[in-house]
Amino acid sequence: MSRSLLRDYRDSLRYPEFWLYATWLEIVTKYRRSRLGLFWAIFPAFVYSFGVGAFFAHLQGHDPMRFIPHLGLGYIVFRLVTVSLSEATTACSSHTSFILDGRVRLTDYILRVVAKALFYFLVALPVVAVALAIAPQFQPEGLLTLVPSLLLVLLNVIWMGAVLAVVGARFPDIHELIGSVLMFSFLFTPILWYAEQAPTDTLRGGIARMNPLFHLVEIIRAPLLGEPLERFTFVYLAAMLVIGWGLAAWAYRRYARFVPIWI
After folding, report:
1. Range with the lowest mean pLDDT among 22-36, 43-57, 162-176?
2. Is residue 210 classed exposed, middle or buried when 0-12, 13-18 and 19+ CB atoms within 10 A define those classes?
3. 189, 74 in Cβ contact below 8 A?
4. Structural domain count of the chain
């Protein structure tokens, strides 16, 4: 029997008990064993924002007060997307017992992965808020775009997660491949550099703008820091949303029913 991606996501959001509780339990169990608890969830964002940010600012001759929030925001958005996509490749195989027991609404497992990544994003926000507070280029009106932009990013993440979950169930090696691709894509995402350093009319600028993470990061960060947001970013993300959901709905309807056999 074929499954509908939109219907399964709708049902998962209407009945979130499984994936919300599973995410909460995993996080609580992980940090309850640690003496410093949630400090370790905040620590990477602090190190990247103020440690790596200050280092690369001086290395490239940038003003640290301007570069630190640029890197901090870029890092937490990049981590939100890449952690979701990387773990989506093993979302089905990690829940084999549930699926074989008849719980074949795969969107529950995808949303569990995204919810965990979103938790780390939200936990890191206070660190970035401190960086923004000392940033001379901070645009308070940019906060009005934060929720819509984050929603746009998440809508793209969950269709990509659905595709990768099904493909990952069929080809387990996709996890290693996606991990390597995402690691390499860090260099083509404006986190350690500014978007204007790779102009659109250059080869390196064109290559960088083919990277979806370039636009997923920029749509959230640029309004907050008063950085120019290219019109191409809106076109790219809108096209990716429409085409991506169409592709994901087809792939899910066609192949999701085979996942219990593949795993």
Report:
1. 22-36
2. exposed
3. yes
4. 1
Number of Cα atoms under 13 Å in the Cβ half of residue 7: 8
Query: Distance (Å, rounded) from C-alpha 115 to C-alpha 109?
Result: 10
Residue span of the structural domain in which 207 resides: 5-262
Highest average pLDDT, of 135-139, 163-167, 191-195, comes from 163-167
DSSP H helical ranges for 134-228: 146-170, 174-185, 203-209, 212-225
Structure tokens at 163: 């595709």
Half-sphere exposure of 126 (CA within 13 A, CB side): 8
Give residue for tokens 């029997």. Answer: 1
Q: How deeply is 29 buried, as exposed, middle or buried, from its count of CB atoms within 10 A (0-12, 13-18, 19+)?
A: exposed
- pLDDT band at residue 248 under the 50/70/90 scheme: very high
Gyration radius of the chain over CA positions = 19
